[in-house]
Design goal:
The structure is a homotetramer. Chain A is an alpha+beta fold. Helices cover 51% and strands 11% of the residues of chain A. In chain A, the strands form three sheets. A four-stranded mixed β-sheet of chain A has the order 3-4-7-8. Chain A has a three-stranded antiparallel β-sheet with strand order 5-9-6, sandwiched between helices. A two-stranded antiparallel sheet of chain A has the order 1-2. In chain A, helix 3 crosses helix 10, helix 13 runs antiparallel to helix 18 and helix 17 packs across helix 18. The termini of chain A are far apart. The relative contact order of chain A is 0.11. The mean pLDDT of chain A is 93. Chains in contact: A-B, A-C, A-D, B-C, B-D, C-D. Chains A, B, C, D: InterPro entries: dGTPase-like, HD/PDEase_dom, HD_assoc_2, HD_domain. Chains A, B, C, D: Pfam families: HD, HD_assoc_2. Chains A, B, C, D: It comes from Lactococcus nasutitermitis.
């Protein structure tokens, strides 16, 4: 069998294994069509309305390309028996993502990575049923890849490392859909530079500049797209809106049971896998649209702000003026807004690249460059650009407030006098 | 003021008129973010998940480019006072589109063009409030452009003709998002070839090949993307699902009122503008997901088929074998499927281009080419390719049925013996 | 071994056969770097300065892609032993092209296809030496492919037919370098639709629209790029310039022997292969630059016109006004220009596609579409667009004259009164 | 008037000033069609065969875009009277470039910048005649811009600074033609971020990441394309070839006068402007092709190596092993090659970006970022990536030698034992 999917990023995606094709057709995987890849970013970059479904297809495609290339080119260094487990893990790595995951997880104590593993290993899912056709322990193997416990580090690193199939696809895809040009890099060169080595994967020196460019692209996408202040404003509103609903729930159980039944198990911390899978962007937005008519003005107001895209404004908070946030918040309160709901702090920080630090909390697998003499060297030792980004946190902390405050003279004068940046 | 939107198709979209910016920020316009541009096509072309919001932004951008170019280049032939009305009509031309419009309109007797006009002219909308800031009669003017009643044919043709700002954007945009290459054409050349003439707009002969290429691109997109059998299968399922719900409603009023409140006014044919605006793709899908657990197995089965993308299969129906459809349908019934819900006929036909036929039911404004000697000539007289497509209907009629019928020998033998094409 | 070439059209071109790599490094193949692919077209499309070298690399790449795909996918229908001969023929198909071939061949009775075969089969060339390493009769085999005498029609059609590796590369390449958008088509789809059949190659129906689009692209490139009036003006000047030199030669042998030694064998019709290979665009232009200072004002004038791009202007000649050309030419003479050198007729006609016509002078291998039921059908029977182009000659005949004639009132009035088109 | 040029990098280039159009049509400017933009790089990147003509058209286009944008957007900060001088300087900034300039200038003491000024200011050129139509002192003004003596620093910096119209075009153009993806940056964003300030030009902070990306792109193009070892090998051969001809000249005057007349004035150091303009890539290559048959085996051998692309191989020279070069060179001599002609040292170093260093030999105009509060800040203070590249020289020194030395065991063992890198 061969099925072909038209993909704007990779052109054609070929599926020639019935296991992969049947996984794509499961209810759990199809559900990813209903969850946007970039969450609130499409409020800022209107072109970026793509779903996690298309991203997962792309990750599978890259994994298929690499594993087939390895099988043909490195028969001694790579075991072709790993192809299917790698491809399945690539396809399914995000299958547990939920609606607005990052915000949601913070409030309701869910964990999309745990859900991913559960979907793969729980006997009740369509995904599990199909994986078991390969072998009874195959679901566990796929789950192990995703949780970094799989014994072969080559497979683990293809799915999760500082330059893995996931990141390669999302950078290219988010670049394509936002229209940003920064995120493009030479994936064809990277895909022919990648080599399996005993401890994982490495990159031939001839492809080093392409890897370097990938790191810079990643940095630029974080700075320009993922950390955009307007998208984060929408995330702040979303967080406040859900928090308000959660607080109102105990006194309004009947209301929420009628209008927002799929959220109730989460309000009550009694949710199971089926509850989790019942939620998607459309369901959440449908609930928010109902809440727009609720009598609690905070709930209805925040719901309207979210649905109709009324963004909050923001300023950057730096160490030297962090103490001024209280004064600003006080002025917001004096203007009639409850600060708990109409102001917020949003942090966005990223470490574009790092070498291995054994004592760090979460040590990273560093990118290794294979030199012509066979020696492996860590990337930042060879690249001054990468060295400039390595180990340095980028991003900022922002204080969000209602737009109307920009007309408040006292508010503005605090900003100006303390050299607070917008 | 100037606001800039990143757009993957047009790169940057500049908004420098507060009226336009405020229209974009209305609840009615923001709602377009929640309605996919291509409906069920994204089930086939997974990349094409873009919304009507981004399409409308693109149509505005093209209208802005043309009207500014006209103002600078043809001060005698074009009146710059028309710029704003043209741009507003371009931005708002689809503001009345609803969720799954084509299917929905057939069942519930709604009309998205009438809704567009209502949103523009009804005093209750945010859109109308903003348009009235220009002048009290400005909403009516914008609505007149959309209903082809505006006195200046140049403006009307920019918004609606065989080569208008709407079609130019959707062909480029749908091409970009599906990843099809057929739909690309040289919009830059077209935009500098377009000329205002007394009766409307025309194209300089030097740009004729670009116009020709646009017509071919349009034809290819219809054949390859818009008429794709799998997308139409999903449309058939959707149509059956909504029809089933409508039939069940009288006996299940309480159920639908609770689970699908926004559809009830339509079941009762008592819907008003607010009811219409309350529906979007996410709301509809949320209802369908609820229906998946309804005790009526037809409703729940069709809801699952739609949500989890279980496509129907199909064959083409031609005149010479139309009489065989009954036999096929009978076999579907014998296999235990109620034909009314599990089979369907779907027609997709398009006239890629036509010259003006005064006696036709809906005469088209033909494309005029301005020759170097000043004479206007209808496009198909100059282009053999366009002549080959002019006035000829393309597309087909398909009979849809459950996939499992492909294993029914009698069913297959009817298909083969009657030379019915898949 | 594997050598990789960066190519802007195909991204990376991989060479993994030493025969191919060594052929690329021959003097005869490297010489193609010094011959522009599009001749005088770069005077009109300044971006299109690419050489026959890069085109030949691209044709090789497409042939490699198809033959490897055939070997993997159609082991019964395609013989992998044909891969190398196909790839060599693809690489070398234009190795005999000379400087400004079309103009040159008309004047000096050379034939680039015959030269191609001679380079391949003559024992004196580096190309032949390398080909003989495969087997003593391998050069003859490669030459037979190019002259359509090779027994396997699949191989012949891959190199030369209405949709062959040569045309696919030049359409994409010329599109890329001119910046025209018309010429793009979906080569990836075509390359996975192509199937070897007993009588040659065919295309699966699922790829028919891509083939259709290729035919339209080809038509557009001819109309828009290859037949551009300004490029043809430069061809007319070039033809007149070389003709003048040839006429002057008998009385100026010493001059030409000193300034233009490599042309002398051609003036004397005594040229051999080495003489032919000594000529390239740079050598010709160097001679022309010398001729700019010759005392014969026709020669020097035409040389300056060519080198400094002083284009002639032109009008279209149609049957109904062909008799007016004499009057125009007479006026050119009266203005002091010798018509034989300062006016010219230039024909450009093309048959975008044709089906097989056994009685035609040069019958074409038609494009066959493989339908799902296994039947082969000729393309134009399935595609109305192709039918509209099939068998119809497109192009025009132009009369060229000095630009200054546009200021001659009588000249202009003949043009206008007889409805002669520019 | 308006003339439109199709350009693959900028799409359409519009010329609406007769001065510009007439400058394009001068003999001196048309001559740029015969000089490759990238010299020997097309031996490595076969797609990069574009000429200085197309680059100069692109620089003009960018200058036109910026000056028109400035005129509309910054009427107080920018004087529209500077538009034409800026556009002329942009178009003509490279008009004095000669064939293989860098190599040639080293050997024959020419200076393409001085020639550029001479073409502009000398009364004998077509360029000067046209510029004088603007005003008698206009040629001097244009020349002053190019020599950095023009009083308005805004104009000077648009033509020559660390982010000028020249660099923007060549990065994009060389990227397009080589097929490298590294060189792409968001020129549209840069062009709307650029602001005229009293001391020159600056960039709004909102466009800082685009500027940052431009610096990285520039660095990558130097590392990957401009400094490619194989292209430099061809430059070494070229340098040796011309040096050999120069040495042979005194004893072979008649030979060179007959075969290479346009080089003689340079051999004799008596060259004038006309001599300079008579040389181009084609003329040089024609001479080299003649020299392939000269009896001096060094001359003929080097000519063949250059024409037929027989590249030298190379190793990197670092401080710690610089003393080993002599041993390597000695082995080359022992193998029968005269080291002066068959070995060479080639340095390629670049400073990707630097801030202003008043005491440096050639202080650079630094890139200034305009912050929201109106303060100008030097780029590397805001960007860690740029800081990592600022003031640091990148590139390497290479020792070139005949390929056959790779089979010499002693030679290889010196390389390996001293950890010399290829």
């Amino acid at each position: 069998m061969e099925k072909v999917f038209r993909d704007p990023v990779h052109n054609y995606i070929h599926v020639n294994n019935p296991i992969i094709y049947d996984l794509i057709n499961t209810a759990e995987f199809q559900r990813l069509r209903r969850i946007k890849q970039l969450g609130t970013s499409s409020f800022t970059f209107h072109g970026a309305e793509h779903s996690r479904f298309s991203h997962c297809m792309g990750v599978y495609h890259i994994a298929k390309t690499i594993t087939e290339y390895f099988s043909n080119t490195y028969p001694l260094e790579w075991n072709p028996d790993e192809n299917l487990v790698t491809q399945c893990a690539a396809l399914l790595h995000d299958v547990g993502h939920g609606a607005y995951s990052h915000t949601f997880e913070g409030l309701f104590d869910t964990d999309h990575e745990a859900v991913t593993r559960e979907i793969i290993t729980s006997a009740d899912t369509e995904v599990n049923t199909i994986l078991r056709r390969v072998s009874p322990d195959f679901p566990e193997k796929v789950a192990a890849v995703i949780s970094h416990d799989y014994p072969n580090p080559q497979v683990v690193q293809l799915i999760s490392s500082q330059i893995d199939t996931d990141r390669m696809d999302y950078l290219l895809r988010d670049t394509y859909y936002t229209g940003a040009v920064y995120g493009k890099f030479d994936i064809d060169r990277i895909l022919t530079s990648i080599v399996p080595v005993p401890d994982g994967i490495a990159f031939k020196i001839s492809g080093m500049h392409a890897v370097e460019d990938y790191i810079v692209s990643r940095y630029q996408m974080y700075m320009q797209v993922y950390f955009h202040p307007a998208s984060r404003a929408m995330e702040v509103i979303l967080q406040k809106l859900l928090a308000r609903a959660k607080i109102l729930y105990p006194e309004n159980q009947a209301y929420f049971l009628q209008t927002s039944p799929c959220l109730v198990p989460f309000f009550e911390y009694k949710n199971n896998l089926q509850d989790y899978l019942a939620l998607d962007d459309g369901v959440m937005n449908t609930y928010f649209q109902t809440w727009m008519r609720h009598e609690d003005t905070i709930l209805s107001d925040l719901a309207k702000a979210y649905i109709n895209r009324h963004v909050l404004k923001s300023v950057q908070i730096a160490n030297e003026n962090e103490d001024k946030v209280d004064s600003l918040r006080k002025l917001v309160a004096e203007s009639g807004f409850i600060p708990d709901y109409y102001t917020g702090i949003h942090d966005n920080f990223d470490l574009p690249y790092d070498f291995y630090r054994p004592n760090s909390e979460k040590p990273r697998t560093q990118i290794e460059i294979l030199q012509k003499n066979g020696v492996l060297t860590e990337l930042s030792k060879l690249s001054p650009i990468v060295a400039s980004l390595a180990g340095t946190i980028h991003g900022n902390r922002r204080f969000y407030f209602p737009k109307i405050m920009l007309e408040n003279e006292e508010f503005i004068s605090i900003i100006n006098q303390n050299n607070i940046q917008f």
